[in-house]
Amino acid sequence: MNCEECHEREASLHFTKIINGEKTEFHICEHCAKEKGEFLPGSNSFSIHQLLSGLLHGDGHVPNTPSSNFIPPSLACEKCGMSYYQFAKIGRFGCDHCYKAFDSKLNPIFKRVHGGNTLHAGKIPKRAGSSIQEKKQLQQLKQAMQQYILNEEFEKAAETRDEIRGIENRLQQGRDS
Amino acid sequence: MSLERFISDAISPWMKREGPESDIVLSSRVRLARNVQQFVFPIVAQKESAYELIETVEAFLAKEKNEAEAGNLEILMMEKLKPIEKRVLVEKHLISPNLAEQAKYGAVLMNEDESVSIMLNEEDHIRIQCLAPGFQLEEVLHKANEIDDYFEKNVDYAFDEKRGYLTSCPTNVGTGLRASVMMHLPALVLTKKMSRIIPAINQLGLAVRGIYGEGTEAQGNIFQISNQMTLGKSEEDIMEDLASVVMQVIQQERAARKQLQDGLKLQLEDKLYRSLGTLENSRIIQSKEAAKCLSDVRLGIDLEILNGISKMILNELMILTQPGFLQQYAGEVLTPEERDIRRATLIRERIKLENR
What's the Cα-to-Cα distance from B65 to each of B59, B259, B345, rounded to whole Å? Predict the structure, then answer.
């Protein structure tokens, strides 16, 4: 296909514009694109943060209870001072505490970005996370125990229960000391 | 400086080793994004806290210099580098364009063979990057984890039980892991299969990008496949998903190469020899044409159609013919037209170094 501007060179850039449902297509070569400027790759391409920002602003479109969609203008992080609106605009958190401050708004965002996931399932820092690791293990063991009971594998369920008690005792001692 | 010396200095030592599946996979990379609990993230950080982070890292590295798993790390402060020096680091993939251009108080730590680079005060406080030649995802993750554990001994990471490692951008939260593989896929492009493979890979939650050049058009038929999701999957699962897709793409590329050799041997030979001729004879060459010809020549080497040329030529020249390196070799700032002339000269001289 030849360029729609110069009709000489091969069209290498293809655009589809949809404005209010009206679709228009352009096929132009790189040379003409540079001259026109508006089609220059990069000049009107979205960065990941712009895209994200669009997602974050789209918060209101998520089917949810109406009251939970309302974002008070005062919603801001106490640690770094970033407001939710700023966060939505730049698509980046200002500090670790932002995650707590905006917690109620984050699940829909994470779901969209991470294929429906909202909870971490990976590595846990060794030093800071030893108790977290045990808590995770505890959760897994409890699930396993339920499964054993359902399957009527009571011996295994009893073994798992003892294991759970052991970890619970350790966690309790850690808290007391 | 002689060309041989320039190339040997310019190419990262890790790149000179050969890795598994290196006829198709050029390199494997893992990046871990980490932040330190006590500081706000770099986008809102003031000068003092940004410097404090760098000082904190420098202090514990100095203290334990001999047991650092990463070996001896050298620190480079962005503000002390010339623009052209930063550009060269970007072209070697040792730092991101963002660190070179935007980060106000950025720094990078590198080990001797440049297989480890750790960016400080980029979008996140700490970004650990490990590189290896060929298809070695497990090895690079292992290395990155070692360095991560070493850092964690000395600083408190921003970590949350529910959300994992907390990052500035919501797209990195959880594992903070971005794993990628750089692949040379000329036969899949030539047989027009790539346009069907890319959407299929996207559907599996992985991204495919041309690593050189803009948008989906990959210069030199070099594509990067990487994970998109970082939350809700373990590091091992993320790597396994990526590795299994990469293995399939390798098999597809090998099948497409065989198909070309069986069906269109003469046409293929003609194309590859012409590209070699262009590289050996051109006096002015744009990066796009150079990349295309280099890709052809590398395919010719892999298929044993072209002999007596080093496999490394594609990897080497894709890096060295970028604007930053051309200007560093010239020792001056060059216009795009001057660069096209220098590029042609550098490629001709490089091919002459081969014993043919």
Answer: 10, 53, 43
Asked if B219 and B287 count as a contact pair (C-beta separation under 8 A), the reply is yes
Q: How many residues does chain A have?
A: 177
Q: Where are the alpha helices (DSSP H) in chain A?
A: 30-36, 48-57, 66-69, 84-90, 98-101, 103-113, 130-150, 154-176
Q: List C-alpha distances in Å: A11 to A2, B108, B296.
A: 5, 41, 23
Q: What is the pLDDT of residues A19-29, one digit of tens each?
A: 555 666 777 77
Residue A79: strand, helix, or coil: coil
B318 contacts B292 by C-beta, under 8 angstroms: no
In this structure, what are the phi and psi dihedrals at residue A21, rounded to the nearest 5 degrees? 80, -10
CB B222 within 8 A of CB B212: yes
Question: Rounded to the nearest 10 degrees, what angle do helices B336-352 and B323-330 cross at?
Answer: 80
Between A90, A96, A123, which is nearest B166 by CB? Answer: A96
The radius of gyration of chain B from alpha carbons, rounded to an integer in Å, stands at 21
Inter-chain touch B40–A121, beta carbons under 8 Å: no
CB A3 within 8 A of CB A11: yes
**Between vectors from CA B235 to CA B231 and to CA B237, what angle results, nearest 5°?**
90
pTM of the model: 0.79
Contacts of A46 in chain B (CB under 8 A): none
Residue by residue, DSSP assigns A112-148 as HHTTT--S--S---TTTTHHHHHHHHHHHHHHHHHHH
> Would you tell me which residues 211-240 of chain B have a C-beta closer than 8 angstroms to some C-beta of chain A?
214-215, 217, 229-235, 237-238
Given an 8 Å threshold on Cβ–Cβ distance, is A117 in contact with B40?
no
Residue among B114, B350, B321, B310 at smallest CA distance from B212: B321
In contact, B13 and B129? CB cutoff 8 Å? no
Residue with structure tokens 């063991």? Answer: A141
CB distance B339 to B320 below 8 Å: no
Report which DSSP code applies to B334. -
Measure Cα distances from B242 to A10, B75, B185, B218, B229 in Å.
36, 32, 17, 20, 11
User: Tokens in use for B59?
Assistant: 């202090």
In the beta sheet, which residues pair with residue B131?
A: B29
Nearest-CA distance B53 → chain A (Å)? 14
- Counting one residue from chain A and one from chain B, the pairs whose CB atoms sit within 8 A come to 134
The pLDDT tens digits along chain B (356 residues) read 678 777 777 888 888 888 899 999 999 999 999 999 999 999 999 888 899 999 998 888 877 665 555 567 888 999 999 888 888 888 888 999 889 988 779 999 998 889 999 999 999 999 999 999 999 999 999 999 999 998 998 899 999 989 999 999 999 999 999 999 999 999 999 999 998 899 899 888 899 988 765 445 678 999 999 999 999 999 999 999 999 999 999 999 999 999 999 988 899 999 999 999 999 999 999 988 999 999 999 999 999 999 888 888 888 898 888 888 899 888 888 999 999 999 999 999 999 888 65
